[in-house]
Task: inverse folding
């Protein structure tokens, strides 16, 4: 059964610091990912997607994708307390691309 | 655009009772997904519809869970004979066509089974 694994489970960074979150898929056919952010008590919202090998930057957020290693990472520079949330990595199912599988997430805490 | 609407926000049932959860997808979206979120299991896929047709229900506990989409403006998830382990936040999401696209989630229904 396909798995999307995220690390670390929890991450604490000081305000202004860099947060780095990791995600891998167990399925070799997966070659694109999404990152969703879920603030406490709210529903997940798509933050960034990456479909091509390499790097994609949007403001303070950068996503990397290495298709060969089935690995994606999310980096948040100049972290703010408002970035504190659950970050979920998602990938399409190996046999059915319409079905999206989520990892268990990384809880990010940014301390003021 | 109101986004994906889920009702009720909270539902409390007794063990063995039935629970029906409602979802109204974003107008024009043809794919509707149901997920369940718990602290232990995370966000688990349950089922999805495309153009109102059930496509994949591989995540549904077969005996007591059922989902329908009678028209393009709403879907329901029904849980019969609810058990304490069914307690979770049930999230509905929709997307434009369903493939390789952003999922837009509703606010969820928190189900508590006593």
Result:
């Amino acid at each position: 059964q396909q798995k999307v694994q995220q690390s670390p489970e929890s991450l604490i960074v000081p305000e202004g610091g860099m947060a780095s979150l990791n995600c891998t898929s167990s399925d070799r056919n997966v070659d694109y990912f999404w990152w969703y952010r879920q603030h406490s008590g709210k529903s997940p919202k798509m933050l960034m997607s990456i479909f091509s090998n390499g790097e994609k930057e949007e403001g303070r957020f950068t996503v990397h994708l290495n298709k060969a290693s089935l690995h994606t990472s999310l980096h948040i520079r100049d972290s703010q307390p408002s970035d504190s949330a659950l970050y979920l990595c998602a990938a399409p199912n190996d046999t059915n691309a319409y079905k999206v599988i989520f990892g268990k997430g990384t809880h990010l805490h940014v301390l003021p | 655009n109101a986004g994906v609407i889920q009702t009720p926000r909270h539902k409390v049932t007794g063990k063995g009772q039935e629970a029906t959860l409602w979802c109204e997808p974003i107008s024009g979206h043809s794919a509707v997904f149901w997920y369940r979120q718990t602290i232990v299991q995370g966000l688990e896929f349950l089922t999805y519809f495309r153009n109102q047709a059930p496509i994949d229900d591989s995540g549904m506990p077969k005996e007591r869970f059922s989902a329908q989409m009678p028209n393009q403006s709403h879907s329901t998830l029904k849980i019969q004979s609810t058990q304490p382990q069914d307690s979770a936040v049930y999230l509905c999401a929709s997307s434009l066509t369903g493939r390789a696209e952003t999922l837009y989630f509703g606010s969820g229904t928190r189900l508590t089974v006593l």
